[in-house]
């Protein structure tokens, strides 16, 4: 496990998991949101984001958390391990609402500077529809790379805790 992708619905715990795995393994963590979003929630142009992504992927090891489906194939080509957080929508919705309250008026460490935590109807719809719109494509992609990549699908927070505990014991 040297080049890791962590994907799944917003609110599933991708960034927290990535940080914890990074602490345990020493792998550098890249939160793609922090590179994509400029202050005031301004999206980075695709060409600029792609250049930065290519630069980061040239290093020997990393953990990248974030979906960004447009660049998933590029990241999968370089990765050796993929974690998918396949949690129920109600849990992800609860967590994004909780996060909004917890980080009110502040930017999270895994976000771009100047991107204060927010919550709007479009984002809630995206979370609600993730399982229907995004999940099938992600599962298909993971089936395609399963022979060459380590693929781990978490369906419950308990499975995540067990994995992290096993990683801690392996140290």
Main β sheet profile: 5 strands, parallel
Cα shape: globular
- Alpha-carbon distance between the termini? 14 Å
- Tell me the series of helices and strands, N- to C-terminal: EHEHEEHEHEHHHEH
Q: Which class do the helix and strand fractions yield?
A: alpha/beta
Portion in beta strands = 15-25%
Number of discrete helical segments: 8
In helices, the fraction of residues equals 40-55%
Strand order of the largest sheet: 2-5-1-6-7
* pLDDT averaged over residues: 94
Alpha carbon gyration radius: 16 Å
Low-confidence stretches: none
Number of strands: 7
Summarize the structure.
By secondary structure, the chain is of the alpha/beta class. It has helices at residues 14-25, 32-36, 46-57, 72-78, 89-102, 121-133, 135-145, 157-170; strands at residues 3-8, 29-31, 37-38, 42-43, 62-65, 81-85, 150-154. It has 8 helices and 7 strands.
């Amino acid at each position: 496990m040297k080049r890791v992708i962590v994907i799944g619905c917003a609110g599933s715990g991708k960034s927290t998991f990535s940080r914890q795995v990074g602490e345990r393994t020493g792998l550098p963590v890249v939160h793609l949101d922090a590179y994509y979003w400029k202050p005031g929630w301004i999206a980075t142009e695709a060409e600029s984001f792609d250049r930065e992504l290519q630069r980061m992927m040239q290093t020997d090891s990393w953990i990248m958390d974030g979906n960004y489906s447009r660049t998933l194939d590029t990241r999968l080509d370089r990765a050796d391990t993929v974690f998918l957080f396949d949690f129920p929508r109600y849990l992800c919705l609860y967590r994004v609402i909780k996060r909004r309250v917890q980080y009110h008026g502040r930017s999270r460490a895994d976000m771009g500077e100047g991107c204060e935590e927010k919550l709007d109807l479009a984002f809630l719809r995206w979370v609600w529809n993730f399982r229907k719109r995004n999940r099938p494509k992600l599962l298909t992609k993971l089936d395609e790379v399963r022979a060459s990549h380590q693929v781990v699908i978490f369906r419950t927070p308990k499975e995540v805790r067990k994995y992290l505990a096993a990683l801690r014991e392996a140290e």
